[in-house]
């Protein structure tokens, strides 16, 4: 999604029109659209398997945090299994 939004912003619209275009054409606000573009610019396709929330969380990380380590430590396959509660 971010790649498509970036294309529209950079190739199809005049400077300054993106916010208005996003408001009229997206099911989310223009700041979310801008964050999706920012994610593509920072991470490329490396985050295509992650949720939008996780990608936005990565955008707010300090530069000192390795993004690849962050993703590995936060994906379900690397989390400890949750213990099932007894139903007694």
Automatic annotation (TrEMBL):
InterPro entries: DUF3102. This is DUF3102 domain-containing protein.
């Amino acid at each position: 999604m971010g790649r498509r939004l970036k294309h529209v912003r950079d190739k199809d619209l005049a400077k300054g029109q993106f916010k208005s275009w996003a408001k009229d054409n997206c099911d989310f606000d223009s700041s979310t659209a801008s964050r999706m573009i920012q994610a593509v610019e920072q991470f490329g396709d490396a985050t295509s398997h992650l949720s939008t929330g996780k990608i936005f969380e990565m955008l707010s990380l300090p530069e000192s945090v390795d993004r690849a380590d962050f993703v590995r430590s936060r994906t379900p396959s690397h989390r400890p299994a949750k213990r099932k509660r007894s139903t007694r």
